[in-house]
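How it folds
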Amino acid sequence: MRSTQDLLDRQFAALADATRRDLLTHLRQGPATVTELAGHYPITRAGISQHLTVLEKAELLTRTRRGKWVECQLTQTGLDQAAAWLEEQRAQWNDRLERLEDHLNGQPPNTTNSREATHDG
């Protein structure tokens, strides 16, 4: 469990930086070299490479050497892991807020974990 938590820590730390989020946005268009990515920013190629290292350690992208070029590509599994954690948190909070709403409206507690189990829509 700790390795999963460590990975999530690295992923959210990586995503906390606006430049790194923007790099991931550029990579949604498809693979790109470090030089191509660096052309979008007023920082050095070495600075971009440092950002890419953080993203790679967070398993949000991979870098592959192609001759003298290094190509970067998004990794779907890394993004999926972070998104799954966020979705789990969202679902739990929605359930809590719905139960609070029921309580405030004087409705008896729902015995299931989710209102969706007793409501059609």
